[in-house]
Amino acid sequence: MTTTEGHPAAPRRARRRSIAFWILAPLSVFALALLGLGLQAVDVPIAFWWPAAGVSLAFVLRTAPSHRWVAIALVFALTSSANAIAGRPAALAVLYGLFNTVEIVIVVVLLSRLGEPFRLDSLKHAARFTGAALGGALVAAAGIASANTLLGTGSFFPASIIAFASHSSAMILIGSLAILPRDRSRHVRLVEIAAHLLAVGTAIFLAFGPPGYTHLSFLVFAILAGACLRFPMRLAAWLSLLTSVAVLVLTRTAGGTSRVGIVESAESAVTLVVFMSAVGVFTVLVAAARHESLANAALAVQAAHEIATAERTRATAIAQQLDLERQREDFTTATSHELRTPVTNVLGYTDLLAESALTAEQRSWVDAIRRGAARLKDLIDSLTSPGTGGDPDRLPVDTLIDDICAAHHADALSRRTTLDTVHSGHHVLAVEADVRRALWGLVSNAITFAEGGTVSVSAYRIGDDVAVVVADDGPGMSPETLGSAFERFYRGREAEGRTASGIGLGLATARELARRNGGDITLASRPGEGVVATLRLPAAPTT
Length: 543
Hints:
The chain is of the alpha+beta class. It is built from 16 helices and seven strands. It is about 65% helix and about 10% strand. The strands form two sheets. Strands 2-4-5-7-6 form a five-stranded mixed sheet. Strand 4 and strand 5 form a beta hairpin.
């Protein structure tokens, strides 16, 4: 929404609130300073309660840090002026205003050390606020009592005790209202508030009213504890302030039996302000502790909800993955079944053709057909499982390498890839068909990715095993591809754009075959530096 001039209405409302704040807050400080000067007790040279201290603290805390010096200057000017208007000597009025200001500065500095807006949102912060208020009040009390002593208007100790209790209680009861956090309690019904007011009013009347049962004053704290634990923190703070004011009024009226006047004794004044200070400290600590517990409970509930959501998502993902696995297995089983029969027929007829009288050229064609059909049969077999295996034999590694490389000779020539082999004389103990299929997959991959390069196949003894190494100088694998290379049906982005007919089963099948024979396959690679595949198998005993 905008005004007719086209400017946003929200900034105007903010400016009006700011103007009202800077008018009403200083007026409240000045008015409560004058009111406080009227709170006198017999044989006490100063006011026995100083509500202006609490309003001054709230005023400065609610002011933006960049403008706090203005608020502090106003506190000094207003409290000094109020003391002067009340008839105090000019020097004493200025000193009172100075010490009032110093205590506010001390509290604000102590609360601002974290460099962030301070809030009574935890027991730790409540204890810190209480300690800051007591510390500021202690400094102000010492200064005010010293000023009284030096100017001959009173003795040090009575004035210091009264000043400390009156200033600390005002800052804790009133100043805390400026730094309360956002309430987390649920809505409170009016009947509950009414019941609380009735209960606390009854307790105050019995303890501080005409009956004079002062030994029942503890009931006030019991009822306030209920308010702190049941009501929102802001409501509990206001109820504590109203309770303290009600006790003050009854004390000034001699339990409600006379008109407002001077408190009859210094002891009564000290008891009153100490009670009010205790009410403030009790309320701030208990309400802050409850607020913190509610905040922690809310965080725990939120964390539990997020964990539950994550678990549901994970369960859904696992279910989807299992369903995809089932669909893939069904597809591969059906596909391999449908393809196995025609491939078997091709192999059978090529065997028949090979037994016929053929020219050398025709025989090379038949051999090429048979190699392709055999490769296709191996691929179909790998779609379902590597097979059932057999009995391990003592196999010469050099012969296996030569046979596999010879079978890939034509493919290497077509890709302009050089095949190098190194004989080692080692033997392995494994199922021959398994070793041939595993090594076939490694050599086939190397030739495919080292197009125009070199593939070397060698073997060496390592402990009780023989390692057959197939190394190429192709583009290598990225860490992502290397981490997923042995997953079934996985094809890395390095395979894109290459004439590779695989479907991501070669490495997975080769590793399964190697492990079935007590060995394993590992890969080592860096992007741009080729791949080193190592087939490790148990070494055969020496004959």
